[in-house]
Amino acid sequence: VELSCIIKSTVTPDPRIEWKKIQNGETSYVFFDNKMQGDFATRAEILSRTSLVIKNTTRMDTATYRCEVAAPSDTKTIDEINIQLTVQ
């Protein structure tokens, strides 16, 4: 599964990108501090700096995934998008 977080334009040279998983009211990190976290460390990767690829998805991966972008040099310093993933 590939989840994309498209950044249209930014003047910040290296915006901070984080991915979080929200499931049953609990939020956990997927990609934080430039590395995969938890069980995603062995089965997920970041492509082109913004797309999250999860390998061997199972129903346990059904959740809302949030991509957060922090660009301190931009007018809009932070933005996010939520993507609902349903694995059947």
Uncertain regions spanning at least 5 consecutive residues: none
CATH superfamily: Immunoglobulins
Strands, total number: 8
Q: Portion of residues in helices? A: under 10%
Architecture, CATH level 2? Sandwich
Report on the biggest sheet.
5 strands, antiparallel
Features:
single chain, 88 residues, mainly beta, Immunoglobulin-like, three-stranded antiparallel β-sheet, 8 strands, 0% helix, protein heterodimerization activity, integrin binding
What is the compact description of this entry?
The protein has 88 residues and is an all-beta fold. Helix content is 0%, strand content 50%. Residues 1-79 form the Ig-like domain.
Secondary structure: elements and pairs:
Blueprint: E1 2-4, E2 16-23, E3 26-32, E4 35-36, E5 44-47, E6 51-54, E7 63-70, E8 78-85
Antiparallel strand pairs: 1-6, 2-3, 2-7, 3-4, 5-6, 7-8
InterPro entries: Ig-like_dom, Ig-like_dom_sf, Ig-like_fold, Ig_V-set, JAM-C
GO cellular component, one term: cell-cell contact zone
Organism: Corythaixoides concolor
What does this structure look like?
This protein has a single domain (1-5, 15-83), classed as Immunoglobulin-like, CATH 2.60.40.10. It has 88 residues and is an all-beta fold. The chain is globular, with a radius of gyration of 13 Å. The model has no long low-confidence stretch (mean pLDDT 91). The strands form two sheets. The chain has a five-stranded antiparallel β-sheet with strand order 4-3-2-7-8, with no helix packed on it. The protein has a three-stranded antiparallel β-sheet with strand order 1-6-5, with no helix packed on it. Helices cover 0% and strands 50% of the residues.
